[in-house]
Design brief:
The chain is mainly α. The chain is built from five helices and no strands.
């Protein structure tokens, strides 16, 4: 077992586990929805190859791209995701994650950050901008 002390306060290690669960369990659920549709169209290999290319840039590159695009293009991405929801429904796949993505994109677009970054942003800038508009509760 590889143990490591995390932080000075009790509970910080379990907080990290719960925070990471948002991404790991969320990504798992997204992959399931994506692969069900890919399987229907017999395009699993092509979809997986494309996804591999995305992650070949490294995690920092992927996070910067995704979070940066969300801040700048969320409003435009809503329409694409609504089309994805419609496709999943037509195939009989319950679009639980796709609907949630539409809601998250609508929320992101409502923040009005799209003009702040000049078409490109890195995740730290986006998170900082969201903090500056008061999205986090003060302790």
């Amino acid at each position: 077992m590889n143990l490591q002390a995390v932080g000075l306060e009790p509970g910080q290690a379990s907080s990290i586990k719960l925070i990471l669960s948002v991404a790991t369990k969320g990504f798992e659920a997204l992959l399931i929805e994506m692969l069900l549709v890919a399987h229907h169209f017999r395009m699993e290999a092509e979809v997986m190859l494309s996804l591999n290319h995305f992650f070949a840039r490294g995690l920092d590159g992927v996070v910067n791209r995704f979070v940066g695009r969300d801040a700048v293009y969320a409003g435009q991405m809503v329409r694409e995701m609504e089309s994805s929801v419609n496709l999943l429904e037509k195939l009989g796949v319950e679009p639980l994650m796709a609907r949630a993505i539409v809601q998250r994109l609508q929320w992101s677009a409502s923040l009005g950050l799209s003009g702040k970054f000049g078409g490109r942003a890195v995740y730290r800038e986006v998170i900082q901008a969201r903090e500056e508009i008061g999205l986090f509760k003060k302790p």
